[in-house]
Amino acid sequence: MNESYSPVPELNLLKEFQDRLGPVFYSEGFELVEYDGDAGLHTWSEDPAFLSRFVPFAKANSTGSDYALWRCDDRTELATLPVVFVGDEGDLCVIARDLKELFRLLAIDSEPVPEGFPAPGGVEEHSEGHAEFVAWLDETFGLGPAEDPEALREARKEYDDRFRAWARHFTEWVDD
């Protein structure tokens, strides 16, 4: 019996880290939840062709936003799929081009905001497990916090534009 959290090795490594760290945040509001569970996507559309293209895996903040992988194609490397932010205030957008980019953004340690992740200026006081997460990110993937989140936002724009065009086939609530 396989007791892995998911079929995504990168998420399994993060889950092991989260379990070792215990009940503390390592990035503001972020927490892995049941892999492929409910992220409220049915409130956008109940069309199975829409819902089947998402794999929810984490809470994005403390107020009900989530992260999900977007199956934009049929690639087998799930960690390379774009990560979608499913906002509790009506936002639905690509937040990172892949999981490792999301991890780099999480290392900044602020709750996501769709217009520019993370909020300008970052945070003054880090989450309790932040230093451990940054060390884990470096040891595990040789990565550090994103130095220029705005540049990453520009880099993911192509995925976000493609995502929004696709999502408009299922819901009228996706912004231009």
Describe what this molecule looks like in 3D.
The protein has 176 residues and is of the alpha+beta class. Helix content is 32%, strand content 12%. The protein is built from five helices and five strands. The model is unreliable at 118-123 (pLDDT under 50).
Categorize the overall geometry.
globular
**Strand arrangement, major sheet:** 1-2-3-4-5
SSE order in H/E notation? HEHEEEEHHH
Report mean pLDDT, rounded to a whole number.
88
Please count the beta strands (DSSP E, at least 2 residues each). Answer: 5
Tally of individual helices: 5
- As for the number of domains, it is 1
Please give the radius of gyration in angstroms: 15 Å
Distance between the termini: 45 Å
Structural class: alpha+beta
Beta-strand percent range = 5-15%
| Weakly predicted, low-confidence segments | 118-123
Helix content: 25-40%
**Main β-sheet: number of strands, strand sense, barrel status?**
5 strands, antiparallel
Tag the structure with descriptive keywords:
alpha+beta; 5-stranded antiparallel β-sheet; 5 helices
Give the SSE layout.
Blueprint: H1 9-21, E1 31-32, H2 48-51, E2 54-59, E3 66-70, E4 83-86, E5 92-96, H3 99-106, H4 130-141, H5 149-167
Short structural description:
Helix content is 32%, strand content 12%. The protein has a 5-stranded antiparallel beta sheet. It is built from 5 helices and 5 strands, in the order αβαββββααα.
